[in-house]
Structure formats: structure tokens, C-alpha cells
User: Fold Transcriptional regulator, GntR family from Litoreibacter arenae DSM 19593.
Amino acid sequence: MTVSNTQTAAEPVRKVRLSRKPLHERVADDLRDRIITGQLEPAEKINVGALAEDIGVSLTPLREALKLLAAEGLVDLTPNRGASVSEVTVDQTRNLFEVIAGIEGLAAELATRRMSNQDLAELTDLHAEMQRHASDTSREKYFAINRKIHDKIVAFAQNPILTMQRNLLAQQAERVRFIALKRDARRDEAMQEHEDLMAAFAARDPDLARRTWRKHLIASGEQTIALLAQTQTG
Assistant:
């Protein structure tokens, strides 16, 4: 008996194009981080040529990135004068934190009602990680985890409109929050406020979570205002 073997031709390999964030958005991410962490200081003139060389890009994506940051309120673009980092003023900071405290306070309340046990466990792990870095001389790791916790609470609120409104202010809030954390005593106070929030989450007490988180944001704003006032009068 003859057995015929049929061999299926190998199908051609399909190349999958991986989506990548556009270059100007990646440049904006880099510049945003420099502004938030104070590597580029308020009112500092931006030398686009030197900055493009430092980042390793041409002027075109850098200019597009600056437009994005201008829309976020982090950069000022002035005709015939170029770009500069926007200033952080006392009045601006007061107005900003009055709003962001209300938004994130509501986010904490909604998150308490809506997040799963797995979500709470994720926040608990992040909180423990932040505690381990609270006494670091460098603030970058502590601040990165702090930022992630704030973002997670907003995400766990599961309210797209709240998320959209908060994100419009988030970058400005991050910058002034970083200024507040320059003071070590404020970092200790902030850690206790985070601890109080985790207790409210564990107790599933929405009202306590809202009041605790709003108090935390207001305190950060007041500390930043005090530091700015010292700088501007010094």
C-alpha cells in the first residue's frame, strides 16, 4: 500500500507593526519630568538648540513637545522670545490646590466604594514600597511611587469625567507637590496622611477617605505656598 504524504507549505510569517508613541510625545514626557522635578526651574529660559542636542533629537519634535507642555500650563511660548518654563505663583498654587483637593478627595470617596479587594491590595503594596523610600536622601523614587498612588486612586474611582478633569490639572499639581516635598518634615506629615487614608480604605469608609485625602492635598498646597512666599520675598 502506498502512503502519500502531503506537506503543507509553511505560511509566510506576518510582520506585526508595534505601535510606538510619537517622538514628540516621548520628548514631551522627558521635558515634563524635568520640569516637575525641578531640573528645569520656573521662569528658566529654554535653549531649544542645546536642549535638542542634550535629548538627541532635531528641533521639530522638540518644538512640537513644547506646544504640548504649553497646553498643560508647564511652558510659556512667547512670540519672538521663545520658550520658558512657566512660573509657579502663590495665587496660582492656592487656586490649583483648592480645585485638585476637591477632585482627588471625591476620587478617594468613590474609590473606597468601587475598588476591589485586589485594587486595595495593590495600593497597600505601593504604600509599603513608598514607606521604604520615605527616608531616602534622593526624592525621585519616593516621589514616583507617590505619583503612582495618586493616579491609582483616581483610576479606581471609575469615573471618566473625574479622571479627565483631574488629568487637565495633574502635571501642574505634580510640580508644586514636588516643591512641597523638599521639606523633610512635610514628607513625614504626608506619610502619616497616606497612612490615615489606607486605614480609611481598609475600613471601607468613603466619607473618612474623602476628608482625609482632601486634607492631605490642602496641606501640600499650604506648604508649597509657604515655600513660594519665602522664595519670592527672600
Remarks:
- Strands lie at 75-78, 82-85.
- The domain at 23-85 is CATH 1.10.10.10 (Arc Repressor Mutant, subunit A).
- The first strand starts at residue 75 and ends at 78.
- Residues 11 and 155 are 43 Å apart (CA to CA).
